[in-house]
Design goal:
- Keywords: Signal.
- This is Sugar ABC transporter substrate-binding protein.
- The protein is of the alpha/beta class.
- The protein has two domains: 194 residues, Periplasmic binding protein-like II (D-Maltodextrin-Binding Protein, domain 2), CATH 3.40.190.10; 200 residues, D-Maltodextrin-Binding Protein, domain 2, CATH 3.40.190.
- Helix 2 links the parallel strand 1 and strand 2.
- The longest helix has 18 residues.
Length: 425
């Protein structure tokens, strides 16, 4: 029943949008699609369903899908999209250093006219539009539309309820409660925080700590170049110093410097750590994977990393632009967004009724609250090309104690300032 209703809704939506199989004249075609969502994630589940509905509503057209690694796309996208091997549509990271850079280099299609025509500007509130629009400098927030975000995301505190109960601890809803819990676990010989230094998780934790001393102006200066950034101000200093202290106190394992995000998530799912500070993109995995203990999540106190999710972008050299736009339309349809939500993701298009599952209700409501409060701070690697690796290196040195907090901040300041000097050139 669900699939039949979903197919009918998608076909109707495509007909209203003036797209669908008629635009293809019945000729066999292939839509080359890349994304980096694991098949068991909420987004992977939803996009798989979207592919089925796309092929059902476009007779004679097949989707050639390739799953790419997030790290792989971070490093190779500019080169690949400037070659004959580029896909027709792909999921790509948002922000100045990624989608912004590609738009500035002329590698992405300006879809502004289609956004208005298909009503996507009405589906996305102003906060969600920020990461889809880039000016001539490649700076997000204004200018032309170069992509469509397809879900939302934000960083939360996930915790093992059974381990917390065993040690007489309450849910860590404040920094003080979080620190008290980690101190008690470390005192009992339990490393409290699951972390991965080789990829995004550790740098996001350090950024989260800095955000506890930051405000909206601080975020905009760093992310959108609206003013001078001092990497030795109170916020950055607190972030780096506190992270280093957490390592010294045994809250973070020194061998986590070489771990990847998957290592971190798997270890938390297996019950090896009581706390994981990471994104809502893990939610679906946790729901499916955790079998032997009770778990919960709480909002990060105050401003937190988060935004609209990754985007569908259409390379300038796409051979099937209209088909790519049709696929985006399907992923933005209510049935697919509902599918994403029910699989544990945060939808970009909210349903008229809340989810029945209390966990999913909490997930969506927490994001909506953070968005309404303007408490989403994007992600630390966005401001400069190559900044992801710079941050990873600096934070790894904090984990291994091979650099002081001041030295780590110097390391992340230099490439930021070098990039800022080139903005607009």
């Amino acid at each position: 029943m669900f699939k039949r209703g979903l197919a009918a809704a998608v076909v109707a939506m495509l007909a209203l949008a003036g797209c669908g199989s008629g635009s293809d004249s019945g000729d066999p075609k292939t839509l080359k699609l890349w994304h980096f969502e694991p098949p068991d994630s909420a987004m992977g589940t939803a996009w798989a369903e979207a592919i089925k509905q796309f092929e059902a509503s476009h007779p004679g057209v097949k989707v050639s899908f390739e799953e790419k690694g997030f790290e792989q796309m971070q490093k190779t996208a500019p080169m690949v999209l400037n070659s004959k091997d580029a896909p027709d549509i792909l999921e790509y990271s948002k922000g100045n250093a990624t989608a912004g850079l590609l738009s500035k280099q002329g590698l992405l299609t300006d879809i502004s006219d289609e956004v208005t025509k298909r009503g996507w500007d009405k589906q996305l509130n102003p906060a969600m539009q920020t990461t889809a629009r880039y000016d001539e400098r490649g700076v997000m927030g204004d200018g032309k539309w170069y992509g469509i975000p397809n879900y939302a995301e934000y960083v939360k505190i996930f915790y093992n309820k059974d381990m917390f109960a065993k040690h007489g601890l309450a849910a860590p809803t404040t920094i003080e409660q979080l620190t008290t819990a980690m101190d008690k676990f470390a005192g009992a010989g339990v490393t409290p925080l699951a972390v991965a230094g080789a990829e995004y998780p550790a740098q996001q934790v350090m950024y989260q700590l800095a955000l506890t001393k930051a405000d909206r102006d601080w975020v905009d200066r760093f992310q959108r170049y609206t003013g001078k950034v001092d990497f030795h101000d109170a916020a950055w200093t607190y972030g780096a110093t506190t992270f280093a202290e957490w390592v010294k106190k045994g809250y973070i394992a020194k061998d986590s410097a070489g771990l990847k995000a998957e290592d971190m998530g798997s270890a938390f799912i297996q019950g090896k750590y009581p706390i994981m500070i990471s994104g809502s993109w893990w939610y679906g995995r946790l729901v499916k994977g955790i079998k032997n203990f009770e778990w919960g999540s709480v909002r990060w106190p105050g401003i937190a990393s988060g935004s609209a999710g990754n985007m569908w972008v259409i390379p300038k050299g796409s051979k099937n632009r209209e088909l790519a736009l049709d696929f985006i339309a399907i992923t933005m349809s209510q049935p697919i967004q509902d599918k994403l939500r029910e699989a544990g993701g945060v939808p970009i298009v909210n349903a008229s009724t809340p989810p029945a599952n209390p966990r999913l209700k909490e997930l969506v409501e927490d994001f909506n609250a953070a968005s309404a409060e303007n408490n989403l701070a994007f992600y630390p690697d966005w401001p400069a090309p190559g900044y992801y690796d710079v941050l990873a290196s600096a934070v790894q040195k904090l984990i291994t104690s091979s650099a002081t907090p001041a030295q780590a901040l110097d390391e992340i300041a230099k490439p930021y300032e070098e990039n800022l000097a080139n903005v607009g050139k």
